[in-house]
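Thread: "does anyone have the structure for this chain?"

Original post by V.I.:
We have the sequence but no experimental structure in hand. Need at least a predicted one for the grant figures.
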Amino acid sequence: MTIKLISDKDNVDFTSFTVTAIESRSATKFTATPDASGTVVFSLPLGQYNITAEDLVNGASTMYGHVDDFTLSSTNTSCSIPLKDLQLSMEKTFVLDELFFNCSSNGDWDNNYYEEYFTIRNVSNRPLYADGLSFAIAGDYNCTEDDGIKSSRLDHDSIVVSQLYTIPGNGRDHLVQPGESLVIAHSAIDHTQNGTKPSARDLSGADFEVYVPYEYSMTTDNPEVPNLIVNYSMFQAFSWGYGGYAPIMLLRTGNTDLTTYVKNNLRNMKVTGSWGNQMQDYLVIPTSWIIDGVETASVDNMFHKVLPANVDKGVIYIQDTGMYGGFQNQFVQRRPTSNGYVQDTNNSENDFVVVPNGQKNYSKK
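Reply from O.Q.:
Generated one for you, C-alpha cells below.
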C-alpha cells in the first residue's frame, strides 16, 4: 500500500508525521514514517483499513488526516491523505470558561478598573496547542437601544467587532492539557496591592496579558507575562465593558493573514449616542471563525441580542447597578459536569452561572 500525504501549507516536514493503518477485522496496527515527499509504503495483507496521519510529538499534534474503510486489493494499492489543522478535524477543542469583567470595588471611589480576566479551557480528550487562537469583542453593544450599529449588522455569516487579539506562538509553544485552561488578564499584576485591597485578586501569574501599546495607555506592561498580539483595537485599548454588554468570542482564523485581513475589512459606521453622531472604524469578521461565544448582559439594561443563534442561543445576565455600571464582583463561570469537564450546549443561559465574589487569584508561581 502506497500512501501520499498532501497539504496546502508550504514547507511541511512530512518526516515528522506518523502514519497508522489499522486492519478493520483483526484490529492489527501498522505504523511507518513518510519520506520527505510525504510518501510511505506498507507491506500489508489484503483487506480493509482505517488510515490516519498526524505529526505527533510528545503526545500532541498540530495536523491530522485520515482515510476510513480503504480496501487494499490487487488493483487498489494507493491513496492520498489530505492533512488539515488538527483542531479543524475535532468537534470540541477550546471554550471560554471563567469570565470576570464586572470588576471589584474596595470602597467608595476605589474601583479596580483593570482587574478583568478570562480563561480558555481545553474541553477535548487530548492535549492541544493554543498558538494562533484569537478572541474578539463585539462592537455591537446589547445595552444600547439604538447605537447605529444594530441596524448595520450584516447577517448570520458575519459580525461586527471592535477588537481582535491573538495568542502568539510558532504552533507548538502553548500546550494545554485536557481539562486545563489558560488565563488571559487585562492587566497581569497583583491587584490586591500586597493585600491592602482584599476585595481584589492577584493576576500576576496569568499566562497572557492584553496590553495595547499606546501613548496614553492606562495599564502597565508586565514584562514577565507574554502579551497577546494586537490585531485591531478601535479604542487603542482593551475595552470589554464592566456591565458585560460587549459579548466575547473565541476564534480560529486558520491561515488568514490577519494584518491584511484587518486592513481590507474595516467598515466606517455612524454611531449614535448621547454625544451625538460619530464615525468609527469597526472590523467585520466571518462567524465561521467563531468556535465559542458568550453573550453577557445586564439584567436591567438589555435591549437586543448581539450574537446570532448559531453562535450562542441564549444570554447570561448579571446584576449591574451603581453609578458606573459595574464593580459588583459578579463572576461568570461555565457550569461543571459530572465527568470533570464543563457544560457546552452553545446556550449561555444554560451553560453559565453567576457566582458573586467567585473570581479567583492566579498568583505568580
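V.I.: this helps a lot. The first strand starts at residue 2 and ends at 6.
O.Q.: and The longest helix spans residues 258-264.
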